[in-house]
Predict the structure.
Amino acid sequence: MKSIAAALLGLIAFSASAEERVLNLYSARHYQTDEALYANFTRQTGIAINRIEAKEDELLERIRNEGAASPADIFITVDAARLAKADELGLFAPVKSRLLEQRIPAHLRSADWFAFSTRARVIIYNKDAVKAADVQSYQDLAKPALKGQVCTRSGAHPYNLSLMASIIAHQGEAKAEEWARGVVANFARQPKGGDTDQIKAVAAGECGAAISNSYYLVRLLRSEKPEDKKAMEKVGIVWPDQKGHGAHINVSGGGMLKTAPHKEAAVKFLEYLASDEAQTYFANGNNEWPAVPTVKVANPALESLGQFKADTLPIATLAKNAALAQKIYDRAGWK
Ligand code: FE
């Protein structure tokens, strides 16, 4: 009897401490490889992950509404502009980790958040309608030669805000606005749809050129659907600005929340995401490149895009210019 009571006590003590071995993750990612990504963390650390998945902006809203009582430990999202928004709202806590500083290049982190994968914003063109030589840079999209040929998604979308933010950083506000006006003057249609819609419109000949994040192209390249294969035969891909600053790079990443109830587990998780194993899952899940430069991912479709020069502008700079980027698009009429 005595031994059963002791055993029970032991059990209670164990479950109480086990309750602490959790991490609450708010994630805007939902890829097949994520299951393995999280299972590995739990196997390595004994820390269970409670995951809440929703759209980026919904998660941000939720964290704000929950305030100090939020159970969220980690927020993971895509795009520098969204990371910046979370940062501006004061949601992230600074994380000091030698491991993260060693693994994640300086231009891919701030004091408050870390990028774990990168994507490029590339130019695509219809091979029958446009010459590759005419779309070698983002600037080319604003030249009169492409009148009535350019398709794009909304200027309010974070991907385009971050691209504009990089142009502001490199060329200043006035030149950036001139660029936006030039692109608007070249619109084949009013901005609509996502990046995949632009790729398909280029393939269909509705537009001569467009911009897209690299992983949407890889997704179509990996697609088994005959219509996707056919579409990709029509489309040429250009790494922009190879003679200048290099292709604009964006990230997915995350950070620890200021109100995180499990701070130790949260830092462990961020460090785990920078490990070789996690980097492979994280990048491959969405056909992106690992943020840790020594990690190599076997993704033939991604590799088929080839090598390129990437802009090394600090992602934190993009984040800072996001608000001005929106103002410039508004002034230029890029809806
Ligand atoms: Fe996307």
Summary: The first strand starts at residue 22 and ends at 27. The CA atoms of residues 209 and 269 lie 41 Å apart. Residues 22-118+254-300 form a domain with the D-Maltodextrin-Binding Protein; domain 2 fold (CATH 3.40.190.10). The chain has two domains: 22-118+254-300, 119-248+311-332.
